[in-house]
Structure formats: structure tokens, C-alpha cells
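comment on this one:
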Amino acid sequence: MKKTNTALPHNIPTTFNAENYHQLCDHLAGADHDLKAILDTYSYPPMWTRANTFEALVHIILEQQVSLASALAALNKLRERTIQLTPDAVLSLSDEEMRACFVSRQKTVYIRGLAQAIRGGEINLEMLKQLSDDEVRSKLISLKGIGNWTIDVYLMFVLQRVDIFPVGDLAAVNALKRLKQLPVSTTREQVLEISEGWAPFRSVATMMLWHYYLSNTAKKIAPVD
């Protein structure tokens, strides 16, 4: 595998992108032999990203505690039903129509709450791009059904923030334990301590962990907030 220059710019980036992603992977691999083994064995992870849209947040909500395939099936049903998945379109759907799109009653409440917050101006997705990670978290955590895991994924996939470790993500945590040969009993605090060694590029390290996990198992389950 051809490696790019591992030297980082003088100003540490706050986001990852197509230009710096492989460089950040190489930098992490140079500092952690276990992450290097992932690159050597499986090459670079995909750069998972999503557009900054209402649909993207709906998708993340749908992924809570279900298989990725099930979440995508529900998202596709919503797309078919609404043509364009917007807050107004979702709020026009009845409970029966939401159920027909494989959306549970609980997640219907969450998605409608998000739609109302965006339509009412409480949440402005474009403005979130201008806020710090903590400010984004403070804005979104107030919405029912949107917890730290959902926000972590939004920060990583949508805003492409470079230093997030989603400690509530079972796949990432299990991959870390397997990679580092840690006991199942390893605590949340111990996992966070290990992840701090990858700062300030924990998002990229997490994508390497997901790549390792998906390359080694068929399990694709997202956690609940």
C-alpha cells in the first residue's frame, strides 16, 4: 500500500476531508502499531460522510439500536412516501403512514420533534457548521431522542469533525477491545483513556476501527442513545 506524507500541517485541522484523510490515517498508524496493522491488512477505511440535511439526521435516528440494513430500508420507504424528505413532508405523514415506512412509534416521536425544531427555527443546520463540537452537542441534546451517540455520528459523518470518539458505539468499542486484545470487562473509562491517545484525530481512528470491525464480522448493529 502506498503511503502518503505523514507530516501534518502546522495548524492542526479541525475537520477531515478528501485532501487530508489518508494523511491523518498515516499519522495515526505511525503512532499506534495496532492502527498500522489495520492499514497494512485492510488498506484505508472509507471516508464515511453525509450531507448536512434533515434527511441525514433522520437516517442517524433510524440507525439507533437496529441493523444498518433495517435503518436504510426505513429511510428508503420514507423517501418513497415523501418524494423529498423534508420537515414539512414528515410532519404531513400520519402515524399509520410512518408505521408503513417501518418507523417505530418511539422514533416517529423523535423524527417529528426534530422536524418541528427545524421548521420552528430552534435548530438551524447551516448554523451548526459554525459552532464548536460542544456547542453543537448542547443544541442537539435538548431534542427528545437525540443523545450523545446520535450527536457523535452527526459530528463525524456530517460535520466531519476530526476529534470525536463515540464511546457509546458498540462496534467501535468492540473493535478497539479486539484490536488491543483487551478483556470484555474493560470499562468505559478505560476505553476513553485509550482513545485519548489518538487525540486530536479520534474520529479518523474510529473510522479505522469501524473498517477493522466490518472487515471481520457480519454484525452491523448501531447502539441506542
